[in-house]
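This part of the workshop introduces the protein records we will be handling. A record pairs a protein's sequence with a compact description of its fold. As an example, a complete record with its sequence and its structure tokens follows.

_____
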Amino acid sequence: MIFSKKRKLILAIETSCDESSVAVVEDETKILSNVIISQIKSHQRFGGIVPEVASRHHIEQITICIKEAIDKADVIPEDLSAVAITYGPGLVGALLIGLSAAKAFAWAHNLPLIPVNHLSGHIYAAKLVSTLKFPLLALVVSGGHTELVYMKEDGKYQIIGQTRDDAVGEAYDKIGRALGLAYPCGKEIDEMAHKGKDVFSFPRAMLKEENFDFSFSGLKSAFVNTLHNAKQKKEVLDFFDLATSFQTAVIEVLVGKTMRAVKTMNVKMLVVAGGVAANKGLREALSESVGYNPLVKLVVPPLNLCGDNAAMIGIAGFVEASKGHFAKWDLNADSSLSL
């Protein structure tokens, strides 16, 4: 057993995209440290994430993050029980940097390696708010993912719905670029959406279809075309109204599909996970909708744990370890890993 030591401590590493993060987690939900070094400023001038740039920054920062996380947690390597590592999905170059660092650290200190799916990390961040009750439904929304995940028990995932084209976070970034906003722009669009009116008839794709899949490509195109047509006609559109109309369409689809899935799957809990879980409009709409069903509890991670971070990987690592899921030294990165 990896937890034969007095303290149950996992060192977790996350480098799936543009954040270098290392954390030390104790007893499943006690975060002793969670170091996050963001690369946003390096990618802003490109209007999005450049994989090669992200990988180079991870190389520069990962050992610094490991040392800082251990120091902040006030532990030494000999205190640790295991190393948890994100091995997918994500940018393959970025994943390989974290995976190499995790293997080297685990090998040097004779520690087992726990493979963690990045998406399961987002879901299990909810454990910091509440004990998870099964069966549950997780709405995973981020820059690269939009999925509805049914969980009958710990560590068991069934994707019942997903985007057929753009992820919702990706759509936010693309329409933000059309508006001339600085990357990342999800938070700014959310703030703008609270100041305008829903006056544009943007599409609610697949909202009335029986499946639980999503599509945001048409909405994105409708938004951009509206903006371009107005410029050609030299018309001035209210950016706040545009943001409100866009976000209203997004939320109606996300909430509509999610609440139908909640009812169909007869779950006890709804977890919202991923970077877009920080969206105030989405939180408000889901809270209101779930409020009509006293049998379902809504759980959303703290704002500081909605984005990519290693603490969530450590929490999920405890779940994987409890099921005996450990990796061999030939573990490789899987950029398209599914739950």
